[in-house]
């Protein structure tokens, strides 16, 4: 049995990353937010980690995954659920390679069919029958995910259908009274019904200006005011929104998220 150095995060929902697809600061940019010394303005790619009764559930494997888990002192992930297959939510998958050594079995990945297709294309080496040595490729167990509630790691995880632009569907997730809805600019009526009675809504709010595939700030505020959760936290934020400056303009009960933010599960 290997000794695993890891912090116990049971009962916590952690925002591992709150940035847009290129992160903040953005490469080559000299704007005030990218040059900011406020640590809240340093945003890695959007993902989250949930400490459930029987293990750690990761939402998405973004390209900053290794750094994010090291920062939070979390040494193991027990399962992964995916919102969608875009690179900023998927391409850190190889960082899962160590976890099967600790688990004693391939790490389970729960995803819809388009995500599975992307994984099998982009990480084809993980599915070769022969490898040069043990640990050369991540050991994965891909499992289908639909809109039915999922019993996972001692909790109920409810997938939520969201729209990411006019023709692209993604998933959000509800665990207890916390919902995570990144990469969306439209929440269908059936999903709005599933988002009633929340304590915390984590929602996409890219920038002040409208965008074709993401909520802007005013649109995210409108959703929050319709659902009326006790608390709303923005994620998938670009470099046009400074943390402190934007927070000062938001209505009560609505706030900017930040990397490493920990929210108690309810």
3D structure, described in words:
Keywords: Hydrolase. The protein has helices at 65-71, 87-90, 99-103, 113-122, 189-194, 217-227, 243-247; strands at residues 12-17, 47-52, 55-59, 79-81, 107-111, 140-144, 150-152, 155-163, 169-175, 178-181, 200-204, 231-235, 254-256, 261-264. It has 266 residues and is of the alpha/beta class. It has a single domain, classed as Metallo-beta-lactamase, Chain A (4-Layer Sandwich), CATH 3.60.15.10. The strands form 2 sheets. Strands 6-5-4-3-2-1-14 form a 7-stranded mixed sheet. The longest helix is centred in the C-terminal third of the chain and has 11 residues, at 217-227.
List the helices and strands and how they pair.
Layout: E1 12-17, E2 47-52, E3 55-59, H1 65-71, E4 79-81, H2 87-90, H3 99-103, E5 107-111, H4 113-122, E6 140-144, E7 150-152, E8 155-163, E9 169-175, E10 178-181, H5 189-194, E11 200-204, H6 217-227, E12 231-235, H7 243-247, E13 254-256, E14 261-264
Parallel strand pairs: 3-4, 4-5, 5-6, 10-11, 11-12, 12-13
Antiparallel strand pairs: 1-2, 1-14, 2-3, 7-8, 8-9, 9-10
Number of strands: 14
CATH class: Alpha Beta
Number of domains: 1
- Biggest sheet details: 7 strands, mixed
Structural class: alpha/beta
**CATH architecture descriptor:** 4-Layer Sandwich
Q: Reading side by side through the largest sheet, how are the strands ordered?
A: 6-5-4-3-2-1-14
Approximate helicity band? 10-25%
Secondary-structure element string: EEEHEHHEHEEEEEHEHEHEE
C-alpha-based Rg, rounded = 18 Å
β-strand amount: 25-35%
Mean pLDDT: 96
Q: Globular, elongated, flat, extended or rod-shaped: what is the shape?
A: globular
Q: In angstroms, what separates the terminal alpha carbons?
A: 33 Å
Q: Could you state the CATH homologous superfamily?
A: Ribonuclease Z/Hydroxyacylglutathione hydrolase-like
Low-confidence segments: none
CATH fold annotation: Metallo-beta-lactamase, Chain A
Domain Metallo-beta-lactamase: 44-236
InterPro entries: Metallo-B-lactamas, RibonucZ/Hydroxyglut_hydro
Protein name: Phosphoribosyl 1,2-cyclic phosphodiesterase
Enzyme class: hydrolase
């Amino acid at each position: 049995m290997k000794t695993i150095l890891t912090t116990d995060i049971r009962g916590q929902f952690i925002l591992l990353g709150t940035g847009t697809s290129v992160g903040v600061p953005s490469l080559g940019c000299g704007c005030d937010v990218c040059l900011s010394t406020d640590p809240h303005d340093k945003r890695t790619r959007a993902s989250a980690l949930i400490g459930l009764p029987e293990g750690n559930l990761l939402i998405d494997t973004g390209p900053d995954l290794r750094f994010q888990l090291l920062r939070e002192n979390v040494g193991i992930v027990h399962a992964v659920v995916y919102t969608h297959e875009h690179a900023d939510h998927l391409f850190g998958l190889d960082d899962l390679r160590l976890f099967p050594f600790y688990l004693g079995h391939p790490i389970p990945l729960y995803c819809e069919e388009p995500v599975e297709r992307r994984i099998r294309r982009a990480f084809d080496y993980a599915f070769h029958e022969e490898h040069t040595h043990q640990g050369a490729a991540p050991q994965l167990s891909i499992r289908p995910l639909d809109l039915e509630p999922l019993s996972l790691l001692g909790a109920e995880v409810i997938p939520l259908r969201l729209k990411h632009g006019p023709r692209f569907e993604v998933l959000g997730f509800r665990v207890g009274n916390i919902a995570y809805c990144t990469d969306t600019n439209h929440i269908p009526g059936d999903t709005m019904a599933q988002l009633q009675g929340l304590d915390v809504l984590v929602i996409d709010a890219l920038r002040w200006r409208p965008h074709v595939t993401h909520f802007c700030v005013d649109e995210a505020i409108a959703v929050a005011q319709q659902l009326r959760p006790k608390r709303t936290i923005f994620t998938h934020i670009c470099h046009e929104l400074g943390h402190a400056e934007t927070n000062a303009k938001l209505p009560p009960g609505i706030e900017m998220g930040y990397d490493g933010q920990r929210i108690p599960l309810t």
